[in-house]
Design goal:
The chain is an all-alpha fold and 109 residues long. It has two domains: 37 residues, no CATH class; 55 residues. The protein is 69% helix and 0% strand. It contains four helices and no strands.
């Protein structure tokens, strides 16, 4: 106990149903350490799990836009011409990213 950072022990009892609910909430948060979970709940009152997978779509769209812009820049440097289809393609991709961002914002609010 002398080397412990947390030296104060708190003990409490729960019934089987309460234990099952605690376990279920831990599983939802992907936390396997009961002590960590209970400490965070006692200190912070709640845990929030953020789903960052939405940002994968944005990242892919931005990568696509970057590739398109690079291809267009190479073509302009080679031919000294800008094509309307190129501009339309960039505009379409930008709109996709904008829609994804608005979707994320609506989920957060």
């Amino acid at each position: 106990m002398a080397n412990r950072v947390r030296k104060n022990k708190i003990t409490f009892f729960v019934d089987d149903d309460e234990r099952a609910v605690i376990k279920l909430k831990m599983d939802k948060m992907n936390i396997s350490n009961l002590s960590l979970y209970l400490r965070k709940m006692a200190l912070e009152g709640r845990l929030i799990k953020v789903d960052y997978s939405v940002f994968d779509n944005i990242s892919k769209s931005i990568d696509g836009i970057s590739r398109n812009i690079n291809q267009i820049a190479k073509r302009i440097n080679t031919t000294s011409s800008v094509y309307k289809d190129d501009i339309n393609q960039i505009t379409k991709r930008q709109e996709e990213v904008w829609q994804l961002l608005k979707s994320i914002l609506s989920r957060l609010l």
